[in-house]
Amino acid sequence: MLKYILLRSLLALAVAFTVSLAAFFLLNVATDPAQAIAGEDATQEVVDMIRARYGLDQPLPVRYFEWLGGVLRGDFGESYYWHKPVAELVAERAGVTITLALAALSVTILIAIPLGALAALNPNSWIDRMALGVAVSAQAVPNFWLGLIMIILFAVMIPIFPVSGDDTWRHFVLPAFVLGASSVPAIMRLTRTGLIEVMGADYIRTARSKGFRGGALLRRHALRNALLPVISVLAVQLGQKFGGSVITESIFAINGLGRLALESILGADIPTVQMLIFVFAIVFVAMNLLADIINAILDPRIRIG
Amino acid sequence: MPLLDVQSLVTEFPGAPGGPGNRAVNEVSFAVERGKVLGLVGESGSGKSVTGFSIMGLVDRPGRVTGGRILFDGQDLASLSGEEMRQLRGRRIAMVFQDPMMTLNPVLTIGTQMTEAITAHEKVSRAESRARARDALGQVGIPSPEERLSAYPHEFSGGMRQRVAIAIALLHNPDLIIADEPTTALDVTIQSQIISEFQRLAETHNTAVIWITHDLAIVSRLADDIAVMYSGRLVETGPVSDVLTDPRHPYTAGLIGSVPSQNTRGTRLRQIPGMTPSLGRLPSGCAFRTRCDRATEACATVPPPETHEGARGFRCIHPVHPELLTQ
């Protein structure tokens, strides 16, 4: 088990660094950082001066390994735009995004799993059809559009939630709903399929024959088995919430990592973009790893193998 | 009064839309006394497992019991509420299912699956339920039962799992056990042990057993009575010794003839031609007539009524017994 986790962790780290390598070269080929720092109207002399000062005149591989060396020491460089260490900048903004991502995941779980379970227990009933309708529409609606509609409905027409910002929990309700809604279709359908399959399994009949029915049967024998695949997908979805926060945070003016990513991309603040890509990659890979570990703990058949 | 009295039981599964339902169990009547073993015999698809599920109230949707009565200890099971039926299942009526590979939950330990069967009906401490589970495992011949409680189903062989399933059924010393081909997956030696265990149980605890099988050899060793099922109907019932030595229904005779024995050594094994018809396409009249060499035009008119002969009964208008023909 320990060996399994260790091996998977190493692999995850390798994936994260590969992503950072690709991101580094793409960013530096696509933009000229010195020009970006100096501004559109700067003279060639100023640009050259900046290039020399930030070490941007070095060849790309040299600069990558310098960056990598810094990362290993916890130094991600200094933001061109905010003029402070990128790591500090990211640390300041991370709390808000983690809150948003977890709140969004809670929204997904609270809507998708009960709805999927109800649909599975009453296949082809009105509730099943309604759940299918919810899934199809949630799948079809883009995040930014849903965000704007929610603002119009629940912040402007019926002003029960603030339009934007991140000061109180009330500020997080609409963005968490919008970000969470995007994962509802996948999780709901997976819960439904899994539970229908499990409810038809022979061991459910065995459990009934032992004297189980209703809620006890569902809790003890059906849900645990049905939710095994759901948990892995949930962990992956949590990783995606961080990436998805770019759009949602921009719509709701939330000062998190997503908005920071957008701002630093627009400002060609390469060290910040570079670190954010690295962080998002790490989070994504870590969530996949977590999913594998949770599955191994819950399913004894994987644990042995 | 028999412990279990099944009267004209009908269990249907929906057929084509708008059409009549398919009767997996069709007007089946039999009774089991305390301490007796009934062998319920038939080919795959004859409805013997569905008969067991009907008694347990565990028929898979969309199938359901649509006719007849099931009296258990004098009580009509159809009149019980869901909760009353739950209290009966596992405690007074237990069932052992066919496929030991699929009938245990893969993500729960054997210990959990056994103790929960106890605590579903009794308020007992963890330690006590564990001790009882351990004893039950020992009773069905599982070595080092204490350790095995912490194991998962996939760490057991098929035979071991089947024994676990039997141990679970025995936990509450039920009044009735329905055993659906419980020894099919087992080695012959273990099969013998399990059969002896059931015989002992029937004697010491006065437990009634319905043993569902296609194996006539087991029935002849274990059962007191036999009920032969074909396409949802009981075609022949009676004491095992009478029915197996002197069958009335051609189907029963065919089953007996297709069992290899000392007497038939060296000769070609007889077999019943054709296969069981599917429920949606049963022939008119006697369902067996298309495979029967005694069938006449009369067999195609109505399903044969039951003829009684002492403790025996059969549904055939051309029974095998020659004296009867001349009567």
Automatic annotation (TrEMBL), chain A:
A GO-annotated cellular component: plasma membrane
Residue span, ABC transmembrane type-1 domain: 94-291
Pfam families recorded: BPD_transp_1, BPD_transp_1_N
GO BP, one annotated term: transmembrane transport
Compartments, record wording: Cell membrane
TM spans (from-to): 98-121, 142-163, 275-298
Family according to the record: Belongs to the binding-protein-dependent transport system permease family.
Keyword field: Cell membrane, Membrane, Transmembrane, Transmembrane helix, Transport
Membrane topology reported for the UniProt record: Multi-pass membrane protein
InterPro entries named among the record's database cross-references: BPD_transp_1_N, MetI-like, MetI-like_sf
PROSITE patterns: ABC_TM1
Protein name as it appears in the record: Peptide/nickel transport system permease protein
UniProtKB/TrEMBL annotation, chain B:
Keyword Acetylation: no
Lipid bilayer topology: Peripheral membrane protein
Localization annotation: Cell inner membrane
GO function terms (MF aspect): ATP binding; ATP hydrolysis activity
SMART domains per record: AAA
InterPro entries, A to Z: AAA+_ATPase, ABC_Ni/Peptide_Import, ABC_transporter-like_ATP-bd, ABC_transporter-like_CS, Oligopep_ABC_C, P-loop_NTPase
Alphabetical keyword list: ATP-binding, Cell membrane, Membrane, Nucleotide-binding, Transport
Any coiled-coil regions, as ranges: none
Domain ABC transporter: 4-256
Main location class: membrane
Cellular component aspect of the GO annotation: plasma membrane
GO terms of biological process kind: peptide transport; transmembrane transport
Family: Belongs to the ABC transporter superfamily.
Name of the molecule in the record: Peptide/nickel transport system ATP-binding protein
Organism: Puniceibacterium sediminis
Organism lineage string: Bacteria, Pseudomonadati, Pseudomonadota, Alphaproteobacteria, Rhodobacterales
